[in-house]
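Field guide to reading this record: the first block holds the primary sequence, the second block holds the structure written as discrete tokens, and the final block holds curator observations. Each block starts with its own label. This record concerns DUF2516 family protein, catalogued under organism Nocardia acididurans.

BLOCK 1 — SEQUENCE
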Amino acid sequence: MCGAAVVPVCEPPSSGRGALSSRRSGARPTKLGRVNTNFAGTLLLLLQLAAAGMTVFALVHAIRQRPDAFTAVDKLTKPAWIAILAVALLFLWIGQVPYSLLSLIAIVATGVYLADVRPKVDEIQRGPRW
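BLOCK 2 — STRUCTURE
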């Protein structure tokens, strides 16, 4: 029987659960997945720090201005803006995520102050810039 020899079939060694099936099913995280997670977390942290920095800047600016400058440009009073910005800073601290509802409210309040109130208060105190 020279043609009846049986050739053994070699199978890859398995780690108990089937190494090939676990790779195909996505059971192991890839390096790319870890990089994306770290990048997203870093980006959100930077956005949160930027929002907090803008709010602190706006709060310090409001504290340093004269009280009559706010009413001279027909805006809310100085204590009202200080309270709004302090609550915005509190919301950013409580929110802990840049895209939570409290954080969005804080960012909008800070944006209104920086874009609308601050330029007018600065202009009334320093005069128009040429």
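BLOCK 3 — OBSERVATIONS
The mean pLDDT is 80.
Helices lie at 19-24, 31-64, 67-72, 78-95, 101-126.
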